[in-house]
Amino acid sequence: MRAGRLRSPGRRTLAGLLLAGLLLPACAPPRSGSLGPAPTAVPPPAATPTPTGPAVATPRPTPAPTTAGPTRPGTPPAAAPTSAATITLELWFVRDGRLAPTRRTRPGTPATSRLALTELAVGPTRAEVATGMTTLLGGGAEPLGIADGVATVRLATAGGDPTTERLRRAQVVWTLTQFPTVRRVRFDPASADSDGPVGRADYADLLPPIVVTGPAVGQRVTSPLTVAGSADVYEATVSLRVLDAGGREIATTFTTASCGTGCRGDYRAVVAWRVPREQSGTVEVYEISADDGSRVNVVRVPVTLVPGR
After folding, report:
1. Distance between CA 62 and CA 47 in Å, rounded?
2. What pTM does this model have?
3. Number of neighbouring beta carbons within 10 Å of residue 299
4. How many CA atoms are closer than 13 Å to the CA of 6, on its beta-carbon side?
């Protein structure tokens, strides 16, 4: 048996120290520290002061759309000229005795509450009328001011029977409370069912089982499309489909609302489709009946389908 060659203790110690020095950085625990949550959006600019006179709700104006066409998902939109700023208003009309939302894009103005009430009085467009929308605010309404989150509104004429009058006031409340400066509305004179300010919760029973807040009636949409709103449906399951100009189903999906079966929750779903050319279409949002599997509580939103690039 060959005898192994003896190593010098000094050399062995020196080699061990060198090896330990090389391994220490790799074995040491990493340094850690919290940087806080990642930013999700650029903070909005500070609100501009409202002019003298009655207070008005002033949401941030949105830039006017450019002619460059729709942007691809995940890419920032092209810069728009600031000389033609616009605002998009959410208006609540009436359909089948319930509240129904739509949207308007108008030139920017600091008196947004007055503009919203004027649009309510003017009423729905021809395309919106075709879906059954109407307004009960034909007599108009005047915003008297906003203080501590409460907007005071004077209605021009009485709405008639109590059911009609309540729906009319609900239109005003749900429209004005879209603005961050308005949480409740006080009517002058006070309503028959309340002598104080009222909010959306006071008229929540006037919402249909399914509300679609986007897309809006007549909107030009591209694929993929985000469909959003609120619903109170069985097991919170909201279904939707896209129909082309010939009424053929070209896409379908479903999602779940944040609450359901006796409570209202928000929902949001993304659906994709393909069309060979620009054409009229329909987005249908509905509930599947637990009894026979049929589509119930259907909300149909006519849109224009734009082919993808």
Report:
1. 13
2. 0.71
3. 20
4. 3
Same domain for 163 and 265? no
pLDDT in tens, 7-25: 444 444 434 433 344 333 3
pLDDT (tens digit per residue) in 94-147: 999 999 999 999 998 889 999 999 999 999 999 999 999 999 998 889 999 999
Unique residue bearing structure tokens 């048996």:
1
Report residue 103 as tokens.
């949207």
Shared-domain flag, residues 187 and 224: no
Instruction: Answer with the one of 153, 183, 206 that is the final residue of a domain.
Output: 206
- For residue 291, the domain's CATH number is 2.60.40.2550
In a domain, 124, yes or no: yes
Residues 193-211, buried b or exposed e (16+ Cβ, 10 A)? eeeebbbbebbeebbbbbb
Domain containing residue 159 = 84-206
The single-letter code of the amino acid at 163 is T
Q: In this structure, is residue 296 part of a structural domain?
A: yes
Q: Domain boundary at 158, 189, 206, which?
A: 206
The encoded tokens of residue 220 equal: 């030009």
* Tens-place pLDDT, residues 254-290: 999 999 889 999 999 999 999 999 999 999 999 999 9
Tens-place pLDDT, residues 105-118? 999 888 999 999 99
